[in-house]
Amino acid sequence: MTTRTRELEPTVSIIVPARNGEATIPALLEAFMKLDYNKEKLEFLIVDGNSTDKTRDIVGKYPFVKLLIQDGDGLNVARNIGVKNSRSEIIAFTDSDCIVPADWVRNVVKNFSDPKIGCLGGSIKGCDGDLLSHYADYSLMPVLRVFRKREVLDSIKLFQRYPAGCNMAFRRKALEDAGGFDEGIRQAFEEDELIERVCKTGYKMVLDPDCLVLHKHRSSLKELLKQTFGYGKGMGFLLKKKKAKDAISRWALLNLLVFLTWFSAAGVLFLSILTPSWKSLYIFPLSITLIPILGMAMIYAHRAIKNGGYERIIIYPFIDILRALAFFLGEAYQLLKRDE
Predict the structure, then answer these.
(1) d(CA 258, CA 328)
(2) Of the candidates 111, 4, 93, the residue with the CA atom closest to the CA atom of residue 43
(3) Is residue 268 pLDDT above 80, yes or no?
(4) Are strands 65-69 and 42-48 parallel, antiparallel or unpaired?
């Protein structure tokens, strides 16, 4: 690469919200040192949310990283603090439990060569090889965002995947035009609401699988279900706040209706088995209850024939159902919860 080309590269600020990340943040900071990009054009900001472990001490060992102390709660507060203290044309975000490949920034920047691109999302895959990490990436309901092809979109669609907070980037002007992150949203899906506003200001969104980040997925089923319950709470919060007036809250409403239909059918099926007078009703709820499960098992079976891992035919649908239940309960909990 010529000196002239390096001079024309845009500046990039990388913002990382962090809280009690001493176990994972060293790997991220080491990855920052290996990025294949002009170091003079890079800026690193860690926004610490009142960590009680050694996160701040670890960050302090890396003089090229700027440590900011968060005043207030929520990821969006941390992100806005990072943006206000950054200086670059492109602002990228990742999390303290991630590892960025050496070509990450370069792949991010390539997408912003088109001035119409306002925001970007990349794929997130697990950095461990255990069963749950593999499930998180290859489930029919991926835990985080995995994109199969590059897409440029000019609006938010109902059945569309959004960028995830641990692997997203914005053009500064687009971020400012959209008004920044909404600090009143403190649940999951907080980034999706901003991305929709960015697109409404006239910018396009790009989803690029080449912009890959590795993530430390949950290591136990209990942790995974707790995470999913939190995602459901976030969806419920957005539905309550936005009242199905935008794409993400309409998606929340559709999720809720699907879950209610499925669980109602399962309830009727259970009663039809126990109550003799209801037995004639079992066919309809049986089909609604079992067809999705059998469909998932068939898809996983097809994948197993191609790639092996036959135990996933049973295990993955079972985890999918538990996660769907956890998500529904989280969404219902948030909708029924009294506003404080």
Answers:
(1) 9
(2) 93
(3) no
(4) parallel
pLDDT at 286 (0 to 100): 63
Bin 180: left if φ > 0, else alpha if -120 < ψ < 50, else beta: left
pLDDT at 58: 96
Please report the sign of the dihedral spanned by the C-alpha atoms of residue 317, residue 151, residue 91, residue 58: positive
Cβ-based neighbours of 277, under 8 Å, separated by 6 or more = none
> Which two structure tokens, joined as six digits, stand for 8?
């024309």
CB within 8 Å of 45: residues ≥ 6 apart: 13, 14, 15, 16, 65, 66, 68, 82, 85, 86
Tell which residue, 332, 264, 301, has the closest CA to residue 140: 301
Beta bridge pairs of residue 42: 12
Q: How far is CA 78 from CA 61, 69, 102, in A?
A: 21, 9, 25
Map residue 100 onto helix, strand or coil.
coil
**CA–CA distance, 89 with 153 (Å, rounded to integer):** 21
| CA–CA distances in Å: residue 302 to residues 238, 287, 290, 294 | 36, 22, 18, 12
> 161-201, pLDDT tens digit by residue?
788 899 999 999 999 999 999 988 877 788 888 988 999 99
Q: Which own/partner pairs from 72-75 qualify as long-range (CB within 8 Å, at least 24 positions apart)?
A: 72/183, 73/49, 73/186, 74/183, 74/185, 74/186, 74/190, 75/17, 75/165, 75/181, 75/186, 75/190
Q: How far apart are CA 165 and CA 121, in angstroms?
A: 8
- State the pLDDT confidence band at 276, using cuts at 50, 70 and 90: low
Count of residues in the chain: 340
Domains of the chain: 3-219 (3.90.550.10), 231-336 (no CATH)
Q: What is the tens place of the pLDDT at every residue in 222-267?
A: 999 999 999 999 888 888 888 877 777 787 888 888 888 877 777 7
